[in-house]
Specification:
alpha/beta, Rossmann fold, TIM Barrel, eight-stranded parallel barrel, 16 strands, globular, binds magnesium ion
């Protein structure tokens, strides 16, 4: 995947400038996010980039601030901007570390952890050290010029006044650079495998394209699962890091709550699926709120309308991270275009960085492209659709020829003959 490496002070938040030189804010309380940064982060994320903040904080080594003060500022930025990855160098030059920019250690460590394509990635910073670190890591570089009274970087790829302009330049250039492969669709939307067949899940777990798993009682029943807990444990013995959603099947809030706590306790990667209502159509919002308060990771499911998205997003407001599953395919089944609903759902949850939208119940492989195009976070995909993903971009004349040959070969294999009825 590609990343945007973001310097912190002067890029995300205002730096404190003394004698023409920038310094970090002292505490989270005085943190000031720069104009346009929130929107730029959202646009970059929607374009499929992983956002990674890489920041030199030598004041820790100098004893003029603490690691916890730095972390508190990062946490506040992360919450406001939806950035989950912060890499901090706490050293000063004398420590001779390999992480302090202009050395590329922080970028290389993040690249190793997240399988980042460095030549496809960009470093954005406001000092020469940022640009030098980005180039040393093999990334393109953007210099945000605040006119500091200090050495300027040499040869950044782009110079601008802030992250909003940087994002515009990055997004405009991302697909059309000569000789560069456009991002595959699986890099732009997370593919969650939908199923309940344990052998199938084991096979999919070896596929790096799969970023998570979802199940539901209907799929489990079809797969012949009789013991729910045994099935859940078997799946978790295969996969303990990528998110896996298991659904509660009770109908009364107390029992749903009990099941949710039990499922959630099985593993840290379990997301508990709670339906938007029970079978009497009564909202599960209160249950969702209480589970959020207890730290249960949720995937609220079976939503088909925007009023439902509004209610659920509000109920999930205090969660650390949660999914909302909108059943686009079921909307389409009724003759309605699901795209405006999915786009509307993204607009509703857009300001809640803890929430991710899942395009549930896709009906055709093209839905994966649609989900990616609107910046939907994830899509559940059955294995038959997954197999068609490698048809992406296939030449249509060639595909036509293969189709003709398939008809011909099947007719021959069946031994069909058309003979004169009287013959
Ligand atoms: Mg800076």
């Amino acid at each position: 995947m590609r990343a945007i490496f973001l310097d912190r002070d002067g890029i995300l938040n205002a730096a404190v400038v003394r004698q023409g030189r920038p310094h970090p804010p002292g505490a989270a309380a005085t943190l000031e996010i720069l104009p346009g940064v929130e929107d730029a982060c959202r646009r970059l994320r929607n374009a499929g980039f992983l956002l990674v903040c890489v920041t030199n904080q030598p004041d820790i080594a100098r004893g003029t601030t603490t690691r916890s003060a730095v972390d508190a500022i990062n946490a506040a930025l992360g919450a406001s901007l939806g950035i989950r990855n912060f890499v901090v160098c706490p050293h000063d030059d004398a420590d001779r570390c390999d992480c302090r920019k202009p050395l590329p250690g922080m970028l290389l460590a993040a690249a190793a952890e997240h399988a980042i394509d460095l030549p496809g990635s960009v470093m954005v910073g406001d000092r020469w050290r940022d640009v030098a670190a980005g180039r040393a890591a093999g990334c393109r570089t953007v210099f945000v010029d605040h006119g500091y009274a200090e050495e300027r970087p040499s040869r950044p790829d782009f110079i601008c006044r802030g992250l909003a302009e940087a994002a515009e330049w990055i997004i405009a250039g991302m697909a059309w650079r000569e000789g560069e492969q456009p991002m595959t669709v699986a890099e732009r939307v997370k593919i969650f495998a939908d199923g309940a067949d344990i052998q199938g899940i084991a096979a999919l777990a070896r596929n790096p394209v799969i970023k998570g798993f979802t199940t539901n009682p209907t799929l489990m029943r079809a797969a012949g699962v009789t013991d729910y807990l045994q099935f859940a444990r078997a799946v978790l013995s295969i996969e303990r890091s990528r998110p896996i959603s298991f659904e509660v099947f009770a109908d009364e809030p107390d029992e749903m709550h009990r099941q949710a706590i039990l499922l959630s306790g099985l593993s840290a990667n379990v997301y508990v699926k709670i339906p938007v209502t029970n079978t009497r159509g009564e909202s599960c919002a209160a249950l969702i709120r209480s589970l959020v308060a207890e730290g249960v990771r949720l995937n609220v499911t079976a939503l088909l309308t925007l009023p439902q998205v509004l209610t659920v997003a509000d109920a999930l407001r205090d969660s650390a991270h949660a999914f909302i599953s909108v059943f686009a395919g079921r909307i389409a089944d009724t003759g309605r275009d699901p795209l405006p609903v999915m786009q509307g759902a993204l607009d509703i949850i857009g300001r809640q960085h803890e929430l991710e939208l899942i395009w549930a119940s896709p009906r055709e492989v093209y839905n994966i492209y649609q989900a990616a195009a609107i910046g939907c976070h994830a899509i559940t995909v059955s294995s038959d659709l997954l197999m068609k993903l490698n048809l992406g971009g296939k030449d249509l004349d060639e595909f036509s020829l293969e189709t003709v040959r398939m008809f011909h070969a099947d007719a021959a294999a069946a031994g069909y003959r058309l003979s004169d009825a009287n013959g």
